[in-house]
Each structure stands twice: as structure tokens, then as C-alpha cells.
Amino acid sequence: MPAAAAVADELEARLRPLSVAVAEAWWDASVDAGEETERRRVEAELARSALLADPDAFAAIEGALAERPAEPLLRRRLELLRDAFLPHQLPEELRRRVVELEASVDARFARHRGVVDGREVDDNEIRRLLRTSDDEAERRAAWEASKTVGAAVAEDVRELARLRNEGARRLGFRDYFALSLATSELDETRLFETLDELERVTAEPFARWKAALDERLAARFGVPAGELAPWHYEDAFFQEVPAAGGVELDHVFAGRDVPGLARETFSRLGLDTAPILARSDLYPRPGKSQHAFCIDVDREGDVRVLANVADDRYWMETMLHELGHGVFDLGIDPELPWLLRSTHLVTTEGIAILAGGLAGDAGWLERVAGVEGAEAGRLDGPLRRARAAELALFTRWVLVMTSFERGLYADPEADHDARWWELVERFQRVRPPAGRRAPDWAAKIHVAVAPVYYHTYLYGQLVAAQLRAALDRACGGLVDRAEAGAFLAERIFRPGQSVRWDRLLESATGAPLGAAAFARELAPLG
What is the chain's alpha carbon radius of gyration, rounded to the nearest angstrom? Predict the structure, then answer.
């Protein structure tokens, strides 16, 4: 066996059980956040980190790559190993501190509940109040309750930024932001060129839509449009389109089996989600993470979703989104080497966003959710406009997040409380509450435990738009079309990480990733 192949085989064999242990421990800590599950998560992550930090192993990877192996899958395995090992080439004490602090912050997010009118409320209740209440005091209390976790973790999140930067600089990178992009097959210059382009593309449509939304909200709450506050919107971060600016669909899902509708959606595409749902934890309870995610535990079929399902449009979209991740994981060629049986962040987010968008698709509402045909037809135009608004709004939100995180790692000591609201006002056109001084940025869990990630959602939107256009051309659409499921299964899922994400997308759609399809979907905003 060539030396390069032996390196890949040996390290894959050593990494595999450690990665499975981390996934299982992370799952346990998410479904039951307590000291014991947090301890087991830390132990599992440190065991994997110890291997990834092995300098001899890293030198062997670099040496194997220097041999320029001709076999494409071997080269690809070694490239992925290099990107996995590089960020961990750090002293044990530094790695331990980061792992322990991340686990501690994550556990506090899972356990935290805000307080409104003297009672504890979870995220679903906060979302309900912001969606339905006409009482401004109650709305403000709910919004402020959503931010209290930020004050509880902010100093530790700053410390994480310092520690991550220390590690990145030891490895020769400007900061952790630069390291994270460099080891995830993304180019920082190209990323910000793309963000600048999308800021220009969305600026005028978003401004017009937001002005119209504000007029409706001003009328509803009896305040001048210029005096609207963050709690007048329906989402605590204004990253989702409120009913006043889109199409209200919660009534469609009231009393419905949301996971069952999601399962039926994928079944009609020829994609089986029953094994995923059987292993999943779908409903809220105390001590459980209030967020949602999909996890591939072993790359051998143990794929699970954590959710906190309620019978509304938000959770319908979320279940479709997370199961989109899941069918991708299950669809990877099981004959590939274990290292290649995974997904790149950009492509898996693209598939999840493509699937989640069905909850606002008129064809899906009619054929899967059972909305009467004439009503679905009436909704088609408004839903397309709402979809365009979602793209514009979400783009502006990602501009906030990515710009904020770049600045956080550029200088963790800066006044990020003020800077956060400067970015929110600039990109989202939301005025900060008068005199507010609080670490509201730290209330976004991604800043703490999924750092330098949010840009992948926006790239995922570009991927989803490009795939949607390709499916329209090749299959006549996505909804209720087995041929569309087969297209995705063969061209996107099956190769896993055997091909770089950008080359995979170009091969599947016939064009490099670009903003053309995305821009066309913005057209209904005018």
C-alpha cells in the first residue's frame, strides 16, 4: 500500500470512533442539558481534539499530500484530514479551555428561560407573543426576555473569541475568522465580494418592502412608523418575514401532524425519512435545547433531528429544513470511505433551505398540505412576493451577522453592544431602543457555539435558488416529483464530499455558483 494511502486509512480508523462518541455526547447534552451530559460532551470532544492535535499525525498528512497522490479520492481524503487537523495544532490547555467554555455556554443556552410577567417562557412562547400580542408592554417584555441569555453568557463569549484568536494566530492566521474560512474551502475575499453584491441587489427592494411593512405595523400598533421598536416585529432578531409583510399560514398547520407532513413531502420525492424520525426528539420539554438541528451520528445511517415542534408554519418549515439535511446524509454513497461520507456546510444548507422553502410554496400547500386548489392559486402570487421578501430580509440579517463576527474577531475588546445595533440599523433598518446598553449580540447562539457559520446560510440560499432553477428545467419543479428527488439523490447527495462543494454544484446545475437565480427570485418585490 502506498504511504499516502496508509496515512489516510490509519487516521480515518482512529478518528471515526472518536467522532461518533462526540456526536452521541453532543446529542445527549442537547436533549438533557445537565452537569453530567455536559461533562461527557467535554470528555468526548477533548479525546477527539487530542488526536486532531497530534503533530506527528499532521506532519504525516502534509507529507502524504506532498507526494501528490494520483488517486482522486485519496487526495480528497487527505485534504479533508488536513483541514480537520490544522485548527487543532495547539497546546492542550488552550484546546481544553475552548472545549469546556463552549460546552458550558451551550448548556446555559439550553437551560435558560426568559421571564415575562413573572413567569418563565420558552422560545416558542416568546415567538407566539411576538406574533399575536397587541399589547405593547407585553411585546416589549417578551422581546427583552429573549435577550436575557445574552447577558448571562456575553463575557464567556468574548473569552471564547480571545481564545479562538490566540489559537489562530499561533497557526499563522490573522484571527479565528480567517482560519475558519481557510479550513472550510471558502475564500474570504470572494465571500465579501459576494456579500457586497447581495447587499447592492437587495438594498432597494428591501427598503421598499420594509417601508410598506412599517406602515402596516404603525397602523396596527398606533405609533408613527419612525418610532417602531424591535419588539413590534414578530421575530426577536427580525430575521423572518412577519405576517404583516408576508402571508399568514399558521392556520394551515393548526392541529396538524407537522412531522407527518414533512415525512409525506419527502416520501413523494422518493426519499425516506422514517428512519430519521424514529431516532429523533421532536417536542419541547424543560432542560432541552430550544433550537433545532440534524445530526449524522456515525455516517452509517444513524441520522437524527432535534426539534421543538409546534403546529405552525415556523415549525413546518423547520422540520422540512432539518429533514433536508437528513436525506442528504442518508443519500451519500455508503461505499465511499468514511471520511467522504459527509456534507459540506454550503451544500447541505442549500438542500435544507430548498426543502424548507416548500412550506411557503403554493403547489406544496395544495398537493401535500391539502389547501383547496382555488385558494392555493390565489396564494401563489402573494407567496412568491413573500419568498422574495424572505430572501431580501434574510440577506440583510446575514450581513449583520457576518459583519459582526468579522469585527468580533478583529477586536474582541471593542464596544460590541453598540456595534451590534449600528449594524442592525444599517442593514435591517431597525432602530435600537432608546438608551439600550446590553449585549444583545450574545443572545444569538451561533455567535457562541457555531462561530463564523452564518455566511453558509446565505451561500445556501444561492445554492437553493440555483438548484430550484435547475429542477424547474430538468423536472418541471420539485413538489411531488420523484424525478426531482432522483436528480438530487444522484447529482448532489450520492457524491458526499468526494468532490469539492463548488465543483459539485457546477456539475449538477451546469454553472458555477452565482447570484443570477437568486436575483430572479427577488423580482416580485419590484
Answer: 23
CA distance 501 to 513: 10
**CB-based contacts of 379, cutoff 8 Å, min separation 6:** 247, 362, 365, 371
Element of type H or E holding 114: strand 114-116
pLDDT (tens place) for every residue of the chain, 526 residues total = 569 999 999 999 999 999 999 999 999 999 998 899 999 999 999 999 999 999 999 999 999 999 999 999 999 999 999 999 999 999 999 999 999 999 899 989 988 999 999 999 999 899 999 999 999 999 999 999 999 999 999 999 999 999 999 999 999 999 999 999 999 999 999 999 999 999 999 999 999 999 999 999 999 999 999 999 999 999 999 998 887 678 899 999 999 999 999 999 999 999 999 999 999 999 999 989 988 999 999 999 999 999 999 999 999 999 999 999 999 999 999 999 999 999 999 999 999 999 999 999 999 999 999 999 999 999 999 999 999 999 999 999 999 999 999 999 999 999 999 999 999 999 999 999 999 999 999 999 999 999 999 999 999 999 999 999 999 999 999 999 999 999 999 999 999 999 999 999 999 999 999 999 999 999 999 7
Alpha helices of 32-115 — where are they, by DSSP H?
A: 35-52, 55-66, 72-85, 92-111
Which triple of cell numbers denotes residue 164?
Answer: 479562538
Spatial distance between the Cα atoms of 492 and 169, rounded to a whole number of angstroms: 36
CB contact at 8 A, 74 and 6: no
Cell of 208: 421598499
Residue 108 to residues 101, 112, 158, 237, 344: CA-CA distances in angstroms? 11, 6, 15, 20, 28
What DSSP state is assigned to residue 352? H
Query: Three-state DSSP class for 415?
Result: coil
Q: Which three cell numbers stand for residue 300?
A: 452509517
Which residues lie below 8 Å from residue 503, measured CB to CB, with a gap of 6+?
Answer: none
Encode 168-224 in three state secondary structure. HHHCCCCCHHHHHHHCCCCCHHHHHHHHHHHHHHHHHHHHHHHHHHHHHHHHHHCCC
Spatial neighbors of 199 by CB under 8 A, at least 6 apart, are 395, 396, 399, 427
What DSSP element (H or E) covers 254? Answer: none
Residue recorded with cell 425519512:
273
CB 117 within 8 A of CB 137: no
C-beta separation of 309 from 319 below 8 A: yes
